[in-house]
Amino acid sequence: MTISILGAGNVGMALAGAFTRRGETVVLGVPEPAKYANAVAALGERARLTTTAQAVAAGDVVILAVPHAAVAAIAQSVNDWQGKVLVDATNPLAPGLAGLTLGTTTSGAEELARLARGARVVKAFNSTGAENMADAAYPGGVPMMPVCGDDAQARQRVMALATLIGFEAVDMGPLMAARYLEPFAMTWIHLAFRQGFGCRFAFGLLRRD
Fold this sequence. Notes:
The chain is α/β, with parallel strands linked by helices and 209 residues long. 35% of the residues lie in helices and 17% in strands.
């Protein structure tokens, strides 16, 4: 399986590093590949750098790790996604991290699914910081990664990727659950940046027998 990651910012590079360290092949797609050549080369031979369009074509799973403002154009740049698993790792953040621009009756992921014809959209990798995606190991337990999507097979594939890089993947069911996951991401962001927690914390799931 080839994993394509669109975007080479904090989240894209964190995920690329985590996957390649575990033996996966990753294609990173960006509008200007030359700007990221050195950073991607440092990931090793399992990482390849291309344009956005080339990365979309190459991947069995395509992860959107771009600013939310770029999502619609990427979704509509492909006439037919032909059943590719399209993972929305973005959040519709308001300027200055003041909140979300969508919510309650829809979500960024649902809007993406409406625009990306033929894609199997899954929401994941949006609810914690890039630092945790780069290294999910915590001495006190395993961080959780909620995953939702309308296609059960696509959802399970993405859950397997989350498990691979050290998370407890939590099946949130249909894509409408992204209406909860995007505000949940704001909980982590609020604690990290407004409440002074910093980025070295994660949420876990506790169960009783």
